[in-house]
Amino acid sequence: MRRVLFCIVLATWLLAAAGCGRQVIRTPIDPYVASDLSTRQIKRVAVLPIIVPDYLRGKGGEAVSVDLTNQLMADLAGDRLFDVVGGTVVTDALAEQYGRLQDWVFDGNIVGAVKIGRELKADGVVFGRVTRYIQSNLDQSEFEIRVELVEIASMETVWSIHELLIGKGAAPGYGEAVTTPSARELSNKGVRGAAERIGEVYEAGGPIEVSNISGRKIWGYSLLTAGAVTSVAAGYYLALSAQAYQKYQDADSAADLSQYQDDAEEYDQMWMILAPIGLGLLGGGTYLLLTDPARNYTTIETDNTRLTFAPTVTTGGVGLTCLGQF
What we know:
Blueprint: H1 2-20, E1 23-27, E2 32-33, E3 44-47, H2 61-79, E4 83-85, H3 88-98, H4 101-107, H5 110-119, E5 124-135, E6 140-151, E7 156-168, H6 183-204, H7 215-250, H8 254-290, E8 298-301, E9 306-314, E10 317-325
Protein backbone atom coordinates (compact mmCIF):
# COMPACT_ATOMS: atom_id res chain seq x y z
CA MET A 1 0.00 0.00 0.00
CA ARG A 2 2.84 2.37 0.84
CA ARG A 3 4.40 1.76 -2.57
CA VAL A 4 1.12 2.68 -4.26
CA LEU A 5 0.86 5.89 -2.27
CA PHE A 6 4.48 6.74 -3.02
CA CYS A 7 3.88 6.29 -6.75
CA ILE A 8 0.81 8.51 -6.62
CA VAL A 9 2.63 11.29 -4.76
CA LEU A 10 5.63 11.05 -7.11
CA ALA A 11 3.41 11.21 -10.20
CA THR A 12 1.61 14.23 -8.75
CA TRP A 13 4.88 16.02 -8.12
CA LEU A 14 6.19 15.27 -11.61
CA LEU A 15 3.00 16.52 -13.28
CA ALA A 16 3.00 19.69 -11.21
CA ALA A 17 6.68 20.33 -11.88
CA ALA A 18 6.28 19.84 -15.62
CA GLY A 19 3.16 21.98 -15.83
CA CYS A 20 4.39 24.88 -13.72
CA GLY A 21 8.07 24.98 -14.63
CA ARG A 22 10.04 26.58 -17.43
CA GLN A 23 8.29 26.25 -20.78
CA VAL A 24 7.91 27.65 -24.27
CA ILE A 25 4.35 28.17 -25.48
CA ARG A 26 3.64 28.27 -29.21
CA THR A 27 0.48 30.24 -29.84
CA PRO A 28 -1.71 28.57 -32.49
CA ILE A 29 -2.38 30.91 -35.42
CA ASP A 30 -3.59 29.57 -38.78
CA PRO A 31 -1.39 30.71 -41.69
CA TYR A 32 -2.79 32.54 -44.68
CA VAL A 33 -2.40 30.43 -47.84
CA ALA A 34 -3.64 31.27 -51.35
CA SER A 35 -6.24 28.75 -52.49
CA ASP A 36 -4.44 28.26 -55.83
CA LEU A 37 -1.05 27.49 -54.27
CA SER A 38 -0.63 24.23 -56.17
CA THR A 39 -0.93 25.99 -59.55
CA ARG A 40 1.72 28.65 -58.84
CA GLN A 41 5.02 28.12 -60.64
CA ILE A 42 7.45 29.54 -58.11
CA LYS A 43 10.84 27.83 -58.24
CA ARG A 44 13.55 30.44 -57.72
CA VAL A 45 13.02 32.25 -54.43
CA ALA A 46 15.13 35.03 -52.88
CA VAL A 47 15.28 34.97 -49.07
CA LEU A 48 15.99 38.47 -47.78
CA PRO A 49 17.47 39.34 -44.37
CA ILE A 50 14.76 39.31 -41.73
CA ILE A 51 13.67 42.74 -40.49
CA VAL A 52 13.96 43.30 -36.72
CA PRO A 53 12.36 45.90 -34.42
CA ASP A 54 13.98 49.31 -34.26
CA TYR A 55 14.42 49.00 -30.49
CA LEU A 56 17.12 46.39 -31.19
CA ARG A 57 19.20 49.03 -32.99
CA GLY A 58 22.57 49.15 -31.25
CA LYS A 59 21.60 46.10 -29.18
CA GLY A 60 22.64 43.29 -31.48
CA GLY A 61 19.74 43.59 -33.90
CA GLU A 62 21.92 42.95 -36.94
CA ALA A 63 23.26 39.74 -35.40
CA VAL A 64 19.72 38.61 -34.60
CA SER A 65 18.69 39.19 -38.22
CA VAL A 66 21.69 37.33 -39.65
CA ASP A 67 21.20 34.38 -37.29
CA LEU A 68 17.49 34.00 -38.04
CA THR A 69 17.90 34.53 -41.79
CA ASN A 70 20.62 31.87 -42.04
CA GLN A 71 18.46 29.45 -40.09
CA LEU A 72 15.43 30.11 -42.30
CA MET A 73 17.47 29.69 -45.50
CA ALA A 74 18.97 26.43 -44.23
CA ASP A 75 15.54 25.05 -43.33
CA LEU A 76 14.00 26.02 -46.68
CA ALA A 77 16.97 24.65 -48.62
CA GLY A 78 16.80 21.43 -46.62
CA ASP A 79 13.13 20.97 -47.51
CA ARG A 80 13.99 21.36 -51.23
CA LEU A 81 10.84 23.37 -51.87
CA PHE A 82 12.62 26.08 -53.89
CA ASP A 83 15.91 27.04 -55.46
CA VAL A 84 16.93 29.35 -52.62
CA VAL A 85 18.81 32.54 -53.48
CA GLY A 86 20.56 34.12 -50.53
CA GLY A 87 23.92 34.97 -49.04
CA THR A 88 26.22 37.44 -50.80
CA VAL A 89 24.02 37.53 -53.91
CA VAL A 90 21.23 39.10 -51.88
CA THR A 91 23.45 41.29 -49.69
CA ASP A 92 25.19 42.74 -52.75
CA ALA A 93 21.82 43.63 -54.27
CA LEU A 94 20.73 45.20 -50.97
CA ALA A 95 23.97 47.17 -50.76
CA GLU A 96 23.23 48.79 -54.12
CA GLN A 97 19.77 49.86 -52.96
CA TYR A 98 20.34 50.67 -49.30
CA GLY A 99 24.06 51.29 -49.00
CA ARG A 100 24.33 49.41 -45.70
CA LEU A 101 22.80 46.13 -44.63
CA GLN A 102 21.90 47.79 -41.34
CA ASP A 103 19.54 50.17 -43.15
CA TRP A 104 17.62 47.22 -44.58
CA VAL A 105 17.59 45.22 -41.34
CA PHE A 106 15.70 47.96 -39.49
CA ASP A 107 13.89 49.85 -42.26
CA GLY A 108 13.23 47.29 -45.00
CA ASN A 109 9.70 46.85 -46.36
CA ILE A 110 7.76 44.59 -48.69
CA VAL A 111 7.98 47.06 -51.60
CA GLY A 112 11.77 47.03 -51.41
CA ALA A 113 11.74 43.25 -51.06
CA VAL A 114 9.80 42.81 -54.31
CA LYS A 115 12.14 45.21 -56.09
CA ILE A 116 15.19 43.20 -54.96
CA GLY A 117 13.51 39.96 -55.96
CA ARG A 118 12.82 41.31 -59.42
CA GLU A 119 16.45 42.40 -59.83
CA LEU A 120 17.61 38.92 -58.84
CA LYS A 121 15.26 37.44 -61.48
CA ALA A 122 13.49 35.41 -58.79
CA ASP A 123 9.97 34.00 -59.11
CA GLY A 124 9.21 34.97 -55.55
CA VAL A 125 10.69 36.67 -52.51
CA VAL A 126 10.52 35.54 -48.88
CA PHE A 127 10.11 38.55 -46.61
CA GLY A 128 10.28 38.11 -42.84
CA ARG A 129 9.67 40.65 -40.10
CA VAL A 130 10.17 40.24 -36.35
CA THR A 131 7.59 42.34 -34.52
CA ARG A 132 8.38 41.28 -30.96
CA TYR A 133 11.71 40.34 -29.44
CA ILE A 134 11.25 40.85 -25.72
CA GLN A 135 13.32 39.53 -22.84
CA SER A 136 11.44 40.45 -19.70
CA ASN A 137 13.22 40.87 -16.40
CA LEU A 138 10.22 39.29 -14.71
CA ASP A 139 8.90 35.88 -15.74
CA GLN A 140 7.97 36.10 -19.43
CA SER A 141 9.76 36.50 -22.76
CA GLU A 142 8.14 36.92 -26.17
CA PHE A 143 9.00 36.45 -29.83
CA GLU A 144 6.79 37.17 -32.82
CA ILE A 145 7.57 36.87 -36.51
CA ARG A 146 5.68 36.93 -39.79
CA VAL A 147 7.20 35.32 -42.88
CA GLU A 148 5.51 35.64 -46.26
CA LEU A 149 6.16 34.65 -49.85
CA VAL A 150 5.29 37.21 -52.51
CA GLU A 151 5.07 36.17 -56.15
CA ILE A 152 6.99 38.69 -58.25
CA ALA A 153 4.88 38.39 -61.41
CA SER A 154 1.48 38.91 -59.76
CA MET A 155 2.67 40.92 -56.71
CA GLU A 156 0.40 38.69 -54.60
CA THR A 157 1.09 37.13 -51.23
CA VAL A 158 1.12 33.37 -51.73
CA TRP A 159 1.35 32.48 -48.06
CA SER A 160 1.95 34.25 -44.77
CA ILE A 161 3.16 32.36 -41.70
CA HIS A 162 2.69 33.95 -38.30
CA GLU A 163 4.56 32.56 -35.29
CA LEU A 164 4.12 33.85 -31.74
CA LEU A 165 6.04 32.20 -28.91
CA ILE A 166 5.87 32.98 -25.20
CA GLY A 167 8.47 31.86 -22.69
CA LYS A 168 7.28 31.27 -19.15
CA GLY A 169 9.69 30.86 -16.27
CA ALA A 170 9.25 29.03 -13.02
CA ALA A 171 8.86 31.28 -9.99
CA PRO A 172 12.38 31.84 -8.63
CA GLY A 173 13.29 31.30 -5.02
CA TYR A 174 14.78 33.98 -2.82
CA GLY A 175 17.98 35.29 -4.35
CA GLU A 176 17.62 33.13 -7.49
CA ALA A 177 17.59 34.36 -11.08
CA VAL A 178 14.44 34.14 -13.18
CA THR A 179 14.51 31.02 -15.37
CA THR A 180 12.50 32.43 -18.27
CA PRO A 181 13.52 31.03 -21.70
CA SER A 182 15.57 33.68 -23.49
CA ALA A 183 14.29 35.66 -26.46
CA ARG A 184 17.11 34.10 -28.49
CA GLU A 185 15.85 30.62 -27.64
CA LEU A 186 12.32 31.63 -28.60
CA SER A 187 13.49 33.20 -31.88
CA ASN A 188 15.29 30.02 -32.96
CA LYS A 189 12.22 27.94 -32.14
CA GLY A 190 9.99 30.48 -33.90
CA VAL A 191 11.91 30.37 -37.17
CA ARG A 192 12.07 26.58 -37.08
CA GLY A 193 8.34 26.57 -36.43
CA ALA A 194 7.75 28.87 -39.39
CA ALA A 195 9.77 26.56 -41.65
CA GLU A 196 7.74 23.60 -40.37
CA ARG A 197 4.51 25.42 -41.20
CA ILE A 198 5.78 26.19 -44.70
CA GLY A 199 6.53 22.51 -45.21
CA GLU A 200 3.07 21.57 -43.94
CA VAL A 201 1.47 24.05 -46.35
CA TYR A 202 3.23 22.55 -49.38
CA GLU A 203 2.58 19.02 -48.19
CA ALA A 204 -1.14 19.85 -47.97
CA GLY A 205 -1.03 21.78 -51.26
CA GLY A 206 -3.14 24.60 -49.86
CA PRO A 207 -4.56 26.16 -46.69
CA ILE A 208 -4.10 24.31 -43.40
CA GLU A 209 -5.57 24.61 -39.92
CA VAL A 210 -3.30 24.76 -36.91
CA SER A 211 -4.11 22.80 -33.79
CA ASN A 212 -5.04 25.01 -30.85
CA ILE A 213 -3.76 22.54 -28.26
CA SER A 214 -0.80 24.13 -26.52
CA GLY A 215 1.61 22.25 -24.27
CA ARG A 216 0.22 24.03 -21.23
CA LYS A 217 -3.30 22.99 -22.19
CA ILE A 218 -2.19 19.36 -22.56
CA TRP A 219 -0.70 19.43 -19.08
CA GLY A 220 -3.81 21.17 -17.75
CA TYR A 221 -6.17 18.52 -19.07
CA SER A 222 -3.77 15.79 -17.94
CA LEU A 223 -3.85 17.15 -14.40
CA LEU A 224 -7.63 17.47 -14.50
CA THR A 225 -7.95 13.86 -15.68
CA ALA A 226 -5.56 12.59 -13.02
CA GLY A 227 -7.36 14.70 -10.41
CA ALA A 228 -10.75 13.34 -11.44
CA VAL A 229 -9.53 9.73 -11.26
CA THR A 230 -7.85 10.33 -7.90
CA SER A 231 -10.96 12.06 -6.52
CA VAL A 232 -13.16 9.17 -7.66
CA ALA A 233 -10.76 6.76 -5.94
CA ALA A 234 -10.97 8.89 -2.78
CA GLY A 235 -14.78 8.76 -2.94
CA TYR A 236 -14.63 4.99 -3.42
CA TYR A 237 -12.53 4.51 -0.29
CA LEU A 238 -14.75 6.91 1.61
CA ALA A 239 -17.75 4.75 0.72
CA LEU A 240 -15.86 1.61 1.82
CA SER A 241 -14.98 3.34 5.07
CA ALA A 242 -18.62 4.17 5.71
CA GLN A 243 -19.59 0.55 5.06
CA ALA A 244 -16.85 -0.68 7.38
CA TYR A 245 -18.08 1.62 10.17
CA GLN A 246 -21.63 0.36 9.67
CA LYS A 247 -20.46 -3.26 9.83
CA TYR A 248 -18.42 -2.40 12.92
CA GLN A 249 -21.55 -1.08 14.65
CA ASP A 250 -23.52 -4.19 13.68
CA ALA A 251 -20.76 -6.67 14.57
CA ASP A 252 -21.60 -9.30 17.21
CA SER A 253 -18.14 -10.81 17.84
CA ALA A 254 -14.73 -9.59 18.93
CA ALA A 255 -13.13 -10.96 15.74
CA ASP A 256 -15.57 -9.05 13.53
CA LEU A 257 -15.08 -5.88 15.58
CA SER A 258 -11.31 -6.10 15.11
CA GLN A 259 -11.58 -6.86 11.39
CA TYR A 260 -14.02 -4.05 10.62
CA GLN A 261 -12.01 -1.60 12.74
CA ASP A 262 -8.85 -2.42 10.79
CA ASP A 263 -10.74 -2.06 7.51
CA ALA A 264 -12.18 1.30 8.52
CA GLU A 265 -8.79 2.64 9.55
CA GLU A 266 -7.19 1.49 6.27
CA TYR A 267 -9.97 2.99 4.15
CA ASP A 268 -9.82 6.23 6.15
CA GLN A 269 -6.11 6.53 5.48
CA MET A 270 -6.64 5.98 1.77
CA TRP A 271 -9.37 8.56 1.21
CA MET A 272 -7.68 11.11 3.48
CA ILE A 273 -4.52 10.85 1.38
CA LEU A 274 -6.20 10.64 -2.04
CA ALA A 275 -8.70 13.45 -1.46
CA PRO A 276 -6.17 16.31 -1.07
CA ILE A 277 -4.06 14.90 -3.91
CA GLY A 278 -7.12 14.84 -6.17
CA LEU A 279 -8.08 18.38 -5.20
CA GLY A 280 -4.52 19.53 -5.76
CA LEU A 281 -4.43 17.98 -9.23
CA LEU A 282 -7.80 19.51 -10.12
CA GLY A 283 -6.64 22.90 -8.86
CA GLY A 284 -3.34 22.64 -10.73
CA GLY A 285 -5.06 21.67 -13.97
CA THR A 286 -7.56 24.50 -13.65
CA TYR A 287 -4.75 26.96 -12.97
CA LEU A 288 -2.79 25.87 -16.05
CA LEU A 289 -5.84 26.18 -18.30
CA LEU A 290 -6.86 29.58 -16.96
CA THR A 291 -3.34 30.99 -17.19
CA ASP A 292 -2.51 29.56 -20.61
CA PRO A 293 -1.30 32.57 -22.64
CA ALA A 294 -2.45 30.86 -25.84
CA ARG A 295 -6.09 31.27 -24.82
CA ASN A 296 -5.71 35.06 -25.01
CA TYR A 297 -5.16 35.04 -28.76
CA THR A 298 -8.06 34.89 -31.21
CA THR A 299 -7.81 34.91 -35.00
CA ILE A 300 -10.66 36.39 -37.04
CA GLU A 301 -10.85 35.44 -40.72
CA THR A 302 -12.77 37.04 -43.58
CA ASP A 303 -12.48 36.46 -47.33
CA ASN A 304 -9.17 38.29 -47.84
CA THR A 305 -8.43 39.71 -44.42
CA ARG A 306 -6.89 38.08 -41.36
CA LEU A 307 -6.77 40.00 -38.10
CA THR A 308 -5.14 38.73 -34.95
CA PHE A 309 -5.82 40.51 -31.68
CA ALA A 310 -3.21 39.98 -28.99
CA PRO A 311 -2.26 41.60 -25.69
CA THR A 312 0.97 43.55 -26.05
CA VAL A 313 3.57 43.87 -23.30
CA THR A 314 6.19 46.56 -23.81
CA THR A 315 8.43 48.68 -21.65
CA GLY A 316 5.75 51.35 -21.76
CA GLY A 317 2.90 49.23 -20.45
CA VAL A 318 0.21 46.89 -21.68
CA GLY A 319 -2.06 47.34 -24.66
CA LEU A 320 -3.81 45.56 -27.51
CA THR A 321 -2.18 44.85 -30.86
CA CYS A 322 -4.09 44.20 -34.08
CA LEU A 323 -2.07 42.35 -36.68
CA GLY A 324 -3.52 42.35 -40.18
CA GLN A 325 -2.89 40.42 -43.38
CA PHE A 326 -4.64 41.67 -46.51
